[in-house]
Amino acid sequence: MKFSSLFGPPAAEIACLIQLWPMVILIRPTQGVNFTPVPAPSLNLQSLGQVALAGNFDSISLYSYQEQSEGSFSNNGSQSIITQLPNGDFATIATADGFITAMCPFVMRDGKFAGVIAAGNFTSLNGAEAKAAAMFDSQTGQVTPLPGITGTVNVLLCNKDTNTVYVGGDFKGVNSTNAVAWVGMSGWANLPFQGFNGPVNSIKQAPNGNIIFGGSFTGLGTSTTTMPDQKDQQVINISSANITSGGTTTTTGFDNATNIVCRTSGQSGAGNTWLLADQTPGFWRADMNFGYVPSLLRIWNTRQDGRGTKTFRFTAIPINGIMNFTYTDPDTGEQGLYCDARCPLTANTSVPYQDFRFENPVGMSAFRIDISDWYGAGGGLNGIELFQNDTYAYAVNSLNEPTCANIKFPSDSTVTGQWSVAPSASSVSEYLTTKLVGSNVSTEGISVIFKPDIKQKGNYTVNIYTPGCKQDNSCDTRGIVNITGNYATASAPGLPLQTQIYQTNDYDKYDRIYQGPVDANSDGFRPTVTLTPSSGQADGVTIVAQRVQFVIVNATAGLNGLYEFDLSTSTMDTNFSNSTFDQAGMDLEPGAIITTIAVTGDTTYVGGNFTDSTTGFENIFSIGTGNATALPNGGLNAEVNTVMAYGDLLYIGGNFTNTVDGSVPGLNNFAAFNTKSRTWQALGAGVSGTVNTIVTLQVNVTTDQPENCITINGPFKQLNKFGSNDAVTVSGFGIWVPSRQNWLQNLKLPSQAITGQLTAMTNVTQSGAKPLALYAGTLSSQDMSAQDAVYLQSNPTKLQSFNVGIQPQQAGPVTRKRAISGQNVTGVVTGLFHTSGNIDVTVLGGHFTATASNGSTIDNLAVVSGTTVTGLAAGLDTDSAFLALAAFDTVLYAGGTVTGNVNNAPVNGLIFYDLGLGEYSHPQPPPFGGNNVAVNAITVRPNKTPAQVYVGGNFDTAGSLGCPSLCIFENGAWNPPGIGIGGSVAAMTWQGNTADKLLVGGHLTAGNNATSLAIYDVTKSQWQEVGGAAANIPGPVTALASANRDASSYWVAGKSTNGSAFLVKYDGSSYISVGDTLGKQTTILGLTVLQLSKNHASNGLVPEDMILLITGQLNLPSFGNASAALFNGTTFSPFILATSGKSPGSLSQLFSANSVSFGPTGGHMAIGFVVLIALACALGAVFLLVVAGILIERYRRRHEGYTQAPSSYFDKTSNMGRIPPEHLFGRLGQSRQAPLL
Length: 1237
Fold this sequence. Notes:
By secondary structure, the chain is mainly beta.
């Protein structure tokens, strides 16, 4: 094919093109790249003073855009196309079921933007079946599959000048392997050289305009389509097929169509021969449970009673195509004869069988042989066999080579564990499936060992096939498998491309697991591939096993990992020495692997795994205007995986530790090379493991200040220590900030939090639209990196970090679980703002570690005073967890699952700490006793001195005193609050204007009756059940909040007996449930009613000027996971999103300096307030009457005229004797009866 005909105007004439028009119906719309802001909630927090949130998270955001989510980054092998929101967070706009390894914007020659080409090893993109490649419209969000290739695409190059997308990888497509072209909007086309005999890892346009391919190939596709020395190596199993026939004889012994299966002796007779009825055409058909591509048909003709088949045709099913064959005439010896609809069989009895080679092999799962002419009285056959060139081993043994074929080492498999056979459905063959049951299920004893029939030693590519999950509805449970191969006895291993396979693909796929030497089967050795489940997976994971394929390839065909495709000529030059690039590859030691190519200016940089013993460089070199040139210091001392040009620097990632000569320390897997000064630069001290990809990313290094940063990905566990920066633990993701010459994770700034993987990035610029950066990978991002506690502010609503340096600990054993919620405790669980005299502190409690201001380690409880952070003195066990805090005067009451020795005495559940002295109080309270002791709630009765401290939780005794569930500490001793209470207390709140009743929630018994709520009357020292609680609250209460001033109305939440979350309000007379509106995975840990600055619509649940804050690990309808939500009585709105490592985070509670203020309640006021108000009203009325009388009198006098007062006065004392003084004042001291009302 001429180059001009491929890329010139008459491109539509190319026969190999796969037309695009059938794909139009497959276009799958998705969300476009549109950002919808969410109005900030109108919270009014001013009356609360300082406000904070506690929980288990390492990053947190306010919900500001509808496209935000709390979803953690995927670790099941699936990736997405991602874009950045205006606030710096990231949103997923299209999701694949596998890796997306490359993207590029395809702008055609006429300037029209066709879309973003995305490629990888996926089989679907946003639900549309799209194997390996698809086109994404960044404006409309439409996904257009590009069918025609199967396998994995590693690299793309969109070229406007040639109207072409060059595609490289490890795949098959059109009539090429590992490299093809997408031309305009017409479809796939073969490149003139039809690809390569090995994978392509990198494609770049060189400074001279030519296209450079890099990979692990040794020849072009046109020169490497060679067959193995022993063709037709594998027998296709017909014995397990469903055999049917038509036109069959009725003669006993000759009427069974299965007579000719596994009959290779050619012997005729009853039981060995299948015959047609006399003078009747007929057919013989085999339907298998697997697909195959046969290369050879072998037929034994019958000679029974002078009968025999004269002509036949072979039809492939399901395509219903008549196959073309070449054959040799056994009577004349003439070779290369051709037949299709009437293929001849000889009647010569000296010919045992005839072979017919498929001219154009195609895939099929069944075939039919139609006999149209015969010898003698009718046709028939004595035997039939099918062969194929590639070698397969199936997990289902009945699909492997038949035992009746008398093969010494037939393909087979060995299965251990409980596997079942799944039907092929839409897949190529039946397969095995198993389910891992149990949270700590052992993967030992669960395996499938594939044993191929390798007859010829050589270099092979080994692929493993995985059936899609949609056909068996297992997509939600598919897991990960480990692949272990044993391929040769003495030769060095080749290229194990994957040792771990994700089985989450929607549709069938294959992955290359090895390329290299494979030994033939012998008595002493047999190649094997073993599939086992990966350890540490969740309960209920589904694992499948189907087949492995061994494909023999040429060892060498003139190239060595590099090929220059000259765009200026219409013919293909096979003299590779004419190309500087080809020659540079051939100068490397055989077996070179080129992984990456970068071009900057007039220089091309080539990286990989190779050596050049002549010039003495390794793993990276450059090509300028002349030959290949070594980089300073001999290059790098181990494999280079990726190179990215950025300004004058090359950022390089791989598996190296230094230069070849060892002169530049600190180049651990990640380094930079300055192309101007030609010097190496350490980036920090690198990372602890291999770097696979490097991608640029804009990051808010400081709030709302985006910078271009460099992200790296790979299986490394930490950013290495350098200078004054300690090592930082990470999960294979690091962000290098060039402007700071440091890792983002090291900067003590309120910066954005990002974790996950990035594999590719591209910029899209369209006419009339803003430039758009698209990323491929899986990310979890939040506005701020913060650990377990943040301040919450209003006007405007925002979060602010505590900067305490908290590090969460692993959750403790089962005995350390919170007694009610059942949640493993980690992070900050509770907090407290306390001011008393000279004390002004913030206290954080939970299960964590932090660093004190003096550098010491803090365990589980931190006291923050200004900028000083302190912890508790030694004595408590480090696996303690604080779940509840309260304070009075200078004493802090801290409870939880707390054990240890303080002041030479044991403590259990509760400690007292003197905030003024900064030490444990003397003495400590007598410890609680019982199984799984936990203090979940503490409250100090308001306005009581000395302090009455009410402590609730899960315990039986306090010291030697029987005091189950709730106990009162007063005057240095424990006191039981009446009798009749039991179970576990989770939350408490005071009721009444004088706090004379305590409402208690949990998993309780009151008066031997199970209940979720109970009330303790302090004045009567009596317990009582809350009427209707047992019938209306469907499970134990874990969170409780007042809904009005005296808590006569309140909210409760918890888990119902069926495992779902509940939220119920008591309005003073009845219980009102919000219904089953929260996802089953919801766990509510805290409830708080907050004031609003702007009223919401009126409803019967939440007052117009208030809103309910719900904290925990929430699953909201039509949204997904959130750590906090606001409920206005009708709608749940996401409020705060948080993550913790690779998982969603959680918020345990809101705490504030002041308690929530409520408006007047609808209940009765205290009598004193009534009297005062009545007196004020009376005085006001008298005053108004006096004023009114004065005004009326003034008016009257003015109206009637003024009369002079008399100037002489009467005797004021003349009447004093008329009323004796004792009559006037004598009764003042005597008691009086109450007035009648």
